[in-house]
Amino acid sequence: MNTRGLAAALLLCAAGAIGSAPWAFDAPLLNFIFKPLATVVVILFALQRGGTQPLLKRWVLVGLGCSLVGDVALLWPREGFLPGLVSFLLAHLAYLWAFTRVQRLAARPLPFVGYALVAAGILALLWPGVPAGLRVPVLAYVVCLGAMAAQAAVLWRAGAPRGGVLALGGALFMLSDALLATNKFAAPLPLANLWILGSYWAAQWCITSWLAPRANHANHANDP
Description:
Layout: H1 3-18, H2 28-47, H3 54-73, H4 81-99, H5 109-126, H6 135-157, H7 163-185, H8 192-209
Helix pairs in contact: 1-2, 1-8, 2-3, 2-8, 3-4, 4-6, 5-6, 6-7, 7-8
């Protein structure tokens, strides 16, 4: 399936998962079907890219695989929250490892300063609502998420190919998780599924789009 077909499939799956919410069709079965399936579509998209970048492609696929495990775990929001958190933490570490194959960690310090301030602000707002037993995992997660998003911005500022879309993916991931945490630990958000899942899959699509497209392999023979 070509990129347009996969993008259409992702939109359909995302609509099915988001439409499962109580404010829409109130059909949990749709979420169980379409939420994992949407991430599988992104994995199929990744498999079609990065042919000249096997190392980067491998670690992006590891990140997507961990994300898929997290998606499945979070189908049970209470029991699966901690396993899901760990799965996504590993996904961010996989992405971070891929990004640092292109640029040294924090090679441009400004994005790290910016994301550290954003992460600190989010934690300060949500910390009172985080249960004591989850505070260490949540803190570790936010550090890894912020580092991943900041390193994505480092690649953009360094002029890496498709660095802009990668930086956007990192920012959208931070937004999605900030919304999810607000909805869970602070106050319910209106249309929460729409904003959280919409920004999440947009983030994953952007990160995957960082890999060189198949049609341009010949033009990217020297890409990392």
